[in-house]
Amino acid sequence: MKSILTLSMVLGYKYVTCSENQSAEN
Question: pTM for the full model?
C-alpha cells in the first residue's frame, strides 16, 4: 500500500515537471 502511494507521488512529480518544461518552452 505504501509503495502505491510513493509511486503516485513520483508520477505526479514527473507530470508537474513535464508540464513546467512544456510551458517554459512554449
Answer: 0.55
In this structure, which amino acid lies at residue 18? C
Condensed to tens digits (0 to 9), the pLDDT of residues 1-26 reads 799 999 999 999 999 998 888 887 76
Report how far residue 2's alpha carbon sits from residue 19's, in angstroms, rounded to the nearest whole number.
Answer: 26
Q: How far apart are CA 10 and CA 3, in angstroms?
A: 10
Alpha helices in 1-26 (DSSP H): 2-25
Cα of first residue to Cα of last residue in the chain, in angstroms, is 38
Torsion of CA 7, 13, 18, 23, to 10 degrees: 150
